[in-house]
Amino acid sequence: MFRSMGNMILARRDSGIGCLQISQVYRHDLRGAATPEACLSLAQKFVSRAGMSAPFDATQIADGGSMFGGFSYLIGKDFGRVWYRLAHEELVLGAYGCSREKQQASEITECESIMMSAHYAESDA
């Protein structure tokens, strides 16, 4: 199920444990200044919360003009993972969250696949 809410989309499997939030909040913030480090910095800002662990399981892929990456984090009893996808100088951020004890690898993999293909339609620019 996908639900549009202003500048974000919430996604959740009908039988899913966690929720994926896809946001365009920093869509144009990196025009002309995009680096993997800058993308990760905005991703960290996007999910920053009190009590958040240091990032772990970080990934980064740069392919031509596009970049993809992310990291996992913990907050109390919750697990989170954030991804960024930069294509055509436009940033899409996605954050997944669930309870640590109910975490499902298949759900996280599915969310990562969604984020790897995320981009804005030409008419949305």
Tell me what you see in this structure.
This protein starts with a strand and ends in a 9-residue tail after the last helix. The chain has helices spanning 36-47, 105-116, and strands spanning 2-5, 8-11, 19-23, 56-63, 66-75, 78-87, 90-99. 19% of the residues lie in helices and 41% in strands. A seven-stranded antiparallel β-sheet has the order 1-2-3-7-6-5-4, with helices on both faces. The protein is built from two helices and seven strands, in the order βββαββββα. With 125 residues, it is α+β, with helices and mostly antiparallel strands.
Describe the structure concisely.
The chain has 125 residues and is α+β, with helices and mostly antiparallel strands. 19% of the residues lie in helices and 41% in strands.
Secondary-structure blueprint:
Layout: E1 2-5, E2 8-11, E3 19-23, H1 36-47, E4 56-63, E5 66-75, E6 78-87, E7 90-99, H2 105-116
Antiparallel strand pairs: 1-2, 2-3, 3-7, 4-5, 5-6, 6-7
